[in-house]
């Protein structure tokens, strides 16, 4: 099976499992799990924030950041196709009572667009209180914000009193591919989340980082949302292992994404946009037939929307597996 549906499908390596087996643990709801505490300190330091909180999923990280930095009835500004809008089961509306206003077309937007979307202060309007940025941008094909736009949007938001959250589920893919360190992306944001369970190869877990005050508020809502975990050091050890060992290797996933994109184009499939990180979007009108034919040759990709497939490279697929997937794809195209 060559599973390119997502980078979430990776399995922990023997070395990561050893780190998990040997983890020192305690009850993290009492704040007594040394592995979780170390992970939180390391993660906060890595992105230049005062504090961090370990959480079960990227969705919970985003939703806690929204809940802690908005009030019911507020507006959150986000790029078109944002994960918080499209793939979190309506959580922002259900759990925080906010409306998400989507801007731009490809997940990025300008400071002018953000400013224009902030409603004037008037009792008829819902106040915009948070801007949520996503980097890399999943639905945009793993795209990376131009750092100047990113910083300009954050500055414009702060000037008007809005907070800024970064959904950095794949922040280290952005950092490795752009050469802009994670701490610089995080610097202009009030909260930043990232996932251990995607390209970094851990089986579970995400983290949200920010000031002491913000993280304290988020901590309270983590309890309310049912995200307090007990001897979580077993999984935090995998996350710590991932931070130490699996960031630099993301470059291989990016090279494999480029290899896959070139191969797909050479067999007549349109790839758009050109991959910057580990996500490849390719297009075909015969989507259902192609998906089925690939599945029957044990190649898994996802259908993101009609006519658009997503293939994600990760540590469990090497360049030989990419070439094999391309062979199957070529055969599938001739068979359908
Ligand atoms: N994305 C998943 C699916 O939900 C689409 C994937 O396979 O890519 N932010 C971003 C940008 C994400 O891509 C994801 C996961 C999350 C947040 C949520 O993370 P989890 O799955 O841990 O809740």
- The whole-angstrom Rg is 20 Å
Query: Into how many domains do the coordinates divide?
Result: 2
One letter per element, helices H and strands E, the order comes to EHHEHEHHEHEHEHHEEHHHEEHEEEH
* Total strands: 13
Beta-strand content estimate? 15-25%
Largest sheet: 7 strands, mixed
The computed structural class is: alpha/beta
CATH superfamily of the largest domain: Type I PLP-dependent aspartate aminotransferase-like (Major domain)
What oligomeric arrangement do these chains adopt?
single chain
Shape annotation: globular
What's the mean pLDDT score? 97
CATH fold name of the largest domain, please?
Aspartate Aminotransferase, domain 2
Low-confidence runs: none
Helix content: 40-55%
Bound small molecules, deduplicated: ligand TLP
| CATH level-two architecture of the largest domain | 3-Layer(aba) Sandwich
For the record, give the distance between the C-alpha atoms at the N and C termini, rounded to a whole number. 20 Å
CATH class of the largest domain, anyone? Answer: Alpha Beta
**Biggest sheet, strands in spatial order?**
2-8-7-6-5-3-4
Specify the number of helices.
14
Give your account of this protein's structure:
The chain has 336 residues and is of the alpha/beta class. It folds into 2 domains: 14-245, Aspartate Aminotransferase, domain 2 (3-Layer(aba) Sandwich); 249-335, Alpha-Beta Complex (Aspartate Aminotransferase, domain 1), CATH 3.90.1150.10. The chain is built from 14 helices and 13 strands. It has helices at residues 14-21, 34-46, 58-69, 83-86, 91-96, 111-117, 147-159, 171-178, 182-187, 212-224, 233-245, 250-266, 287-296, 319-335; strands spanning 2-3, 51-55, 75-79, 99-103, 128-134, 163-168, 191-195, 206-210, 270-271, 279-283, 299-300, 302-305, 308-312. The strands form 3 sheets. A 7-stranded mixed beta sheet has the order 2-8-7-6-5-3-4, with helices on both faces. Strands 9-10-13-12 form a 4-stranded antiparallel beta sheet, with helices on one face. A hairpin with a 2-residue loop joins strand 12 and strand 13. Helix 2 runs parallel beside helix 11, helix 3 (58-69) crosses helix 10 and helix 12 (250-266) runs parallel beside helix 14 (319-335). The two termini are 20 Å apart. The mean pLDDT is 97. The structure holds ligand TLP. The site of ligand TLP has 15 residues, from helix 3.
